[in-house]
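Hi both,

Apologies for the delay on this - the queue was longer than expected. I finally got the magnesium ion-bound model through. Below you'll find the protein sequence and the ligand SMILES exactly as submitted, and right after that the structure tokens for the full complex including the ligand.
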Amino acid sequence: MDATKRAVVFLDRDGTLNEEVGYIGDLDNLVLIEGAGEAVARLNRADVAAILTTNQTGAARGYYPEEHILALNRRLVELLACKGAHLDAVYYCPHLPEAQVAEYALACQCRKPLPGMVLEAFSDHPELDRSRAYVVGDKATDVELAQNCSAKGVLVTTGYGEDVLSGRYQWSVKPDFTASDIAEAVDWILGDLGLAVRSPVGEGFS
Ligand SMILES: [Mg+2]
Ligand SMILES: [Zn+2]
């Protein structure tokens, strides 16, 4: 660890920060999961970087233009701001090897579980501590992203997480921690970093 650098949490979007509702055509349908804004705000206050890393194939599938992905991410940032929270950076992968829309049809290095977005973030933000990195998400691919960049992986059971755990969706993975939601994930991460806020012990006896 490097105490002069910042620990970092790479956050998935759909099913982790906002409710999983499939491809979101209408901005109003992007809604924060209960407690998600407050959880990101706690990372902010602990000076732990919060960076969005999200696969977004809606444009590749021809559902909407890429500009709509940017608009959805802006709405997410606005909703987080209402809770006093911010993201330190936003990365998305719009690619899909089997895409209908030719410009996105490529086998890139940024589609999770490949580590391209995380590597780009480390390159763009040299203040990040690679040895204190976490990935939080609701899919096996999020946990595998963690493994592919030597981060600790937290599976949340919101979104697809419950189905990943039960074997109904994707494949079985071994996260470092399984959390009921992003709030519990942040609790565990702050504890793991030794940054958990403890109530004063032994006050008055010193
Ligand atoms: Mg997700
Ligand atoms: Zn990509």
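Main takeaway for now: The CA atoms of residues 10 and 51 lie 5 Å apart.

I'll put the files on the shared drive as well.

H.
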